Two component transcription regulator protein
Amino acid sequence: MELESPMGKTAPLMLVDDDPDLLRLLTLRLNASGYRILAVESAEAALAQLAISLPALVITDVRLPGMDGLALFAEIRSRYPALPVILLTAHGTIPDAVDATTQGAFAYLTKPFDGHVLLDKVAQALSLAAPAPLSPDQSWRADILSRSQRVAELLAEARLVAASDASILIRGDSGTGKELLARAIHRASARAEQPFIAVNCGAIPEQLLESELFGHVKGAFTGAVEHREGLFQAAHGGTLFLDEIGDMPLPLQVKLLRVLQEKTVRQVGANQAGEVDVRIISATHRDLEAAMREGQFREDLYYRLNVVTLHLPALEERREDIALLANHFLKTIAAKYPKRLTGFAPDALEILSLAHWPGNVRQLYNVVEQVCALSTAPLIPASLVQRALRTPTLDLLRYAEAKQKFERDYLIRLLKLTDGNVSDAARLADRNRTEFYRLLQKNGLDPRRFRGGEEAVVAGRQEERL
């Protein structure tokens, strides 16, 4: 539920308490101050609501039936680390509440508490959690299209960390949009008017990458016929995005670490170093922890780069975005072709939404571009999507159909395993013989067909006569 704060900013508040009278009292008090409230009576209900939409603040009692308020806080801290939490506690749970504040809870109030104190704490929490006023609108994230709750949480964290100069490590599979997120963070930062420079550390040969990053002086090596500025100097005052940092050779990792520590860059062949002011955002699809264990990535550099980690979900973890992205790509790509393309047929969108996407958003874009190029009708048919996905026999089953198919296949495997012995098959399935026979009859399976020898042949001939 979207709520308006007294300052006119979006500020939904969630109250969690199993005491309906206290919920009513707190709701009235906060309503009177301009806040609108979503009240729930259990931690479980709170988590369910959080999965749908995030409030700006959670106020929860510590003592709750089932999962208590401290466990709820731990879940919120794990899933939504940027979401502030205020704990309401009785005298007996004060030590626990104090401990929770050391772990990240915004504050705790002891019952009975002063209403003015509560309002002050709420205002403080909202002011600290509010996005930095550097980009008052949503233009900073305009290139990231999503209706996914996971992406919304990620962007909330990205907006918070953008206000600092902390180094950020973006993790995610190839094709998830790591550079798009890095650019969005840059636009939301105080460096937005300065350069954003991106370099793929795995796409440039090792002997050239050092010169690309740090620059070189004339005569530094064969072919260095003139002085050249590096990407660090080019990004001075702005942001340098180091994509696929896990592919950077070890010798260059040492030199990069020195730059980050000393904030100076010495060009290849130069005797003097120059100061640089650059915010570093790096990205990788590799397991850097495993690379460190194998001696392929320096631990000291890892901790320099990994001040804040942001995880980009794979496309299959945000399937609600597939149709949105596909239609957006269609609209963009269609402008390149001299033909009218209006959208996808419903079954084509269904295939896209249920497909496997190892290449993530980049693969989806390529699929849409292919079907746009090949389509002869305004509406993209399912057959073209299947062709682009190389799944011409893709079988989309409803839940009931999929369940029945699984059940039939399972029974067939059991009968094959037991040579058609119903007693053994029923025992493996943990069902009695009568129930198992009903399952076989429901799926049109005759156990005699799975027995070897003359009995199976006779059974087959009898079935053919019917």
Notes: Residues 399-465 form one domain. The chain is about 45% helix and 10% strand.
